[in-house]
Structures are given as structure tokens and as C-alpha cells.
Amino acid sequence: QKEVEQDPGPLSVPEGAIVSLNCTYSNSAFQYFMWYRQYSRKGPELLMYTYSSGNKEDGRFTAQVDKSSKYISLFIRDSQPSDSATYLCAMSRWTGNQFYFGTGTSLTVIP
Amino acid sequence: GAGVSQSPSNKVTEKGKDVELRCDPISGHTALYWYRQSLGQGLEFLIYFQGNSAPDKSGLPSDRFSAERTGGSVSTLTIQRTQQEDSAVYLCASSLSSGGPTQADTQYFGPGTRLTVL
Fold this sequence. Notes:
The complex is a heterodimer. By secondary structure, chain A is mostly beta strands. Helices cover about 0% and strands about 60% of the residues of chain A. The termini of chain A are far apart. Chain B has strands spanning about 5, 10-15, 20-25, 30-40, 40-50, 65-70, 75-80, 90-95, 110, 115. The radius of gyration of chain B is 14 Å and the shape is globular. The interface between A and B is medium-sized, with 29 and 29 residues.
């Protein structure tokens, strides 16, 4: 079983839709949860960062962590064509420096 | 200043040849990571450098892979006797510090080197 599972998609939505991206994980020691956005032929860039459980909002983006279910989500409101990219979840334990990434979900927002 | 840079951006090589991939981290970043990204496989951790400490090599897939970081800055990932399964995008990331995975340790990624082994 992989440490982090993420549905690869692809996901295609019309402009303005609400997008929900999800990851599940198996290691209860994970404390830090991140979402990265990766445009084609580019390196990933950090989008959202959350520590432990709860919600975090930044503009049109909301990150949600449910540690009891080992489930994290990223919501994108009023999706735009510029949001078209691959979204990767990542997580890490309290100690150690290894980040565990999901396989990424490919998102296309259609104008 | 500039972000993380990697070279070459693309590398095509023949099976059995050695390749060297280069990473220039953000100036002042003490931590440096190498990852491999294959289609449908996500990012696979390879190796991690922190300052002058011994590197964490736990992710290297075989002894054909090695990496060094000279002067705490530039890093080179070397793959000897390349195989077709080595074909992937190799990503480098750096972060400011790494006493632990806090937001201050946000990893900044380079654009990657796309390696194709024929």
C-alpha cells in the first residue's frame, strides 16, 4: 500500500465550477499537509500548507485535513482556466525531512 | 534572486551511458532534495542534503545512482550505466532550513531535467 493515494483523474470541469481534490494516507504520524500545483513542463509550486487537522482558506482555495479519516482535500471555488494544472498532495511527519507525494490529479478548467 | 535552476532541461542518452544532472539551489538555502517523477508515479524521493551533514540517501533506487553537493551549494546527480527504466523527470528542490517540516521549510522546485534513455 502506498503511503499516499491520490486519484490521477483526469478531471475536467467548466469555468466557475467548484473543484474538489482529495488524498488519503495510511501513516497516522503525518502532521504536515501540503498541496502543490504543477503546470506542464514546470516544477511543482506550493499552493497551500496545513498543520494538523482543520481548514485553511486562501482566496479561492480551501485546504481541509481530517486526521481521523486520514483524508485531505483541496477545494477550488470559481475555477478558472488558469487553474488547469496537476495538483499534488504532500505530507510529512514531525521529524525527518522526507515528504511523501501523491501521484497528482490532472485538472482542466474549460472556458 | 533567481529560483532553483537545473540543467540540462532535456537529456537523451543511450542505454549503458552515464549521465550527470545539475541543480543550482536558491542562494542561502541549506537543504537540497532530489526527486524523480515518472508518469503516474508521483514524486519519488531520492536523496536529501542538509548543510554539512551526511546526506540521506535512503531513496536512491540502486547503487548506479549517486549525488554530491559541493560547497553546500550546487548539486550533481549521477546515474551510471543508464537503463530505460531510468527515463523520468528529475526534479531538484531547495529549502531555507530543515530543522523539521514547518512552513519555513517550504521546498522550491526547479523545472526539472527530462531524461530519456533509448
